[in-house]
Amino acid sequence: MTHLNIHILNRLRLFIPVLAGIFAISATAADPVMGRSKSGWRDSVLCTVDRDVAKLDLQVVNDARQWQLMWNVTDSSYNALSIKRLNSFDDGVYSDKARVRLSEMQTGNERVIAEEEVSYSGPLLGLRLTVGDGLRRVLASDGKPLFRDVPVPATIAEGSRAILRTPTKANFRVLRAEASHYLDRRNTKFNTISELDDYLAASRDSVEGYWEYLDRNVQAKAVSLGAPYRLATVRNGDAIDVLYLGPVDSPAQAWQPLMVKGRLIPTIFINNYDLEWADNRRLTLYNSETYATLEARCTILTLNFPLFRSSFRFRRIFPNKH
């Protein structure tokens, strides 16, 4: 939690209610994972993994007796969480249980990695999967961690899909289908700070310049600010790159001078921008309510995160101060 990485302690929740049949593809091919033909089953695409996706966060609930949550789905392979209800009587008491199986499929061959039983209540059974960016977590409906000591496949294949497979008559809801991206940290304009100095010294663009931390208005439980640091803004096509200048992020050195820390995207309003911002793990934090403004004759740069009820201000500085 360093460097105004605006470390998100409670990441945004994207609630997307989805009814069976939306974004769905009826399936009929044989599938050994479920132990039966897919005839009568439906594949609902939750998201497609494009370039620079760092993490998937998927959460669904379902009333079917059997269903699957799959990721890294390509033409010949995927990883899967397969759920089968095991309703039974235990010492005369009705018990709602289910078996969750973690497996991977390669060219038609299934390898079962692990299985666990979970308890649930009510007609809906849910799972949450978080994978990528070094994370690998599976949660049951009640929040119980599953497969804690099992190497859940944590990589995300570019071009793959995440799919929910259910019986065609099943009722389900997608509570979360979120893909977090790495912000492209490359800036091809400058190889050294001296090159940046020369460029900004000659610039007459009021948006471009050097900035240092001024103050903040934050919710302590939502975000964390590390050591105050410095930024530079430089036009890059239709957008404005926000370059990180220092201090050096040690010891991990995730952030080095001239890396792209954020991006300002112009709107129809003067000095008002949509904001892309990379947190301390270099994940892009961006939504329609995240924005930046230039105020006081372009001498104050404010980064606003309304859903976290937080904002950060930077003041313009002259080149010899940075």
What does this protein structure show overall?
Helices cover 3% and strands 50% of the residues. By secondary structure, it is mainly β. It has an eight-stranded antiparallel barrel. A seven-stranded antiparallel beta sheet has the order 1-4-15-6-7-10-11, with no helix packed on it. A five-stranded antiparallel beta sheet has the order 14-13-12-5-16, with no helix packed on it. It starts with 23 loop residues before the first strand and ends in a 5-residue tail after the last strand.
Distance between the termini: 23 Å
Strand order across the largest sheet: 17-18-19-20-21-23-24-25
Instruction: Tell me the structural class.
Output: mainly beta
Oligomer: single chain
Uncertain runs are 6-37
The average pLDDT is 78
Q: Shape, please?
A: elongated
Relative helix content: under 10%
The gyration radius over C-alpha positions equals 24 Å
Instruction: Report the β-strand fraction as a percent range.
Output: over 45%
How many separate helices?
Answer: 1
Helix-strand sequence: EEEEEEEEEEEEEEEEHEEEEEEEEE
Strand segment tally: 25
Task: Outline the biggest β-sheet.
Answer: 8 strands, antiparallel, barrel
